[in-house]
Amino acid sequence: MTTPLIRPELVTSPDGPFLAAAELTQRESRAVSSHAHARGQLMGALSGLVSVGVKRQQWVVPAIHAIWIPPHCEHSIRSHGPFSGWSVFIAEHRCDALPREPRSIRTTPLLRAAVRRAASWNGSLLDVQQTRVAEVILDELAASKAELLGLPSPEDARLVRITDALVCNLSDTRRLEQWAEWAGLSPRTLSRRFVAETGLSFAQWRSQARLLRALELVADGVSVTTIALELGYENVSAFIDMFRRATGTTPGRYAAAGGSSVD
């Protein structure tokens, strides 16, 4: 049984403080089945990586990032190996000025410091000083910019067949025309349906799937060479270039920032 991250009444009850926070560090993987609650949840990682399933999408939460889950939004959670992170639960009536849709954000030092302070509170009504800290958290979330760390799923059965095959083997380098023939539709239909159902082109979707898998492997401490081969890159340099364009840094530096180590 998964140990509750925070006292259940602080999540389910409209009473109590408008903001409650908790931190968690554990060596084993953590999995929480699909659920929803009236409070909005901002969940961040300090080290390791978490996958969150929301609205036909899979989101990843690598270190120094967080995902915002609005009130009543059904979601599931799974960590990949050892994990250290935090969650903030915000009363529904204080979420009106916050993003209406789930989003992944890069956390700021100010946000992380405020959350750490809030995680030390005992769950009682907030005093004046605590309220100021809580308001900082709300302000930082409201001002945050969305980061592309989600992977939307198509609905067309033919497209699902393709995406399922790709996720199982991201080293598969078949071109769009070859995938279309394999799935029994024209290249033009495949291209048009992919954009209509996911908002991404086929090439963009595959690149995003590779990036999210790379983040998981980096968090697990897998070597750069092994990751490049698993994801179908011709050489390590090509993989590092992709990773740098997507994240602004190299896999090694990204891992170091999250508390992992990559050879």
TrEMBL record:
Pfam families: AraC_binding (PF02311), HTH_18 (PF12833)
Organism: Paraburkholderia strydomiana
This protein's UniProt keywords: Activator, DNA-binding, Transcription, Transcription regulation
Domain HTH araC/xylS-type: from-to ranges: 160-257
Keyword Transcription set for record: yes
Residue spans crossing the bilayer: none
Protein name: Helix-turn-helix transcriptional regulator
InterPro entries: AraC-bd (IPR003313), Homeodomain-like_sf (IPR009057), HTH_AraC (IPR018060), HTH_AraC-typ_CS (IPR018062), RmlC_Cupin_sf (IPR011051), Tscrpt_reg_AraC-type_HTH (IPR020449)
Cited Gene3D superfamilies: Homeodomain-like
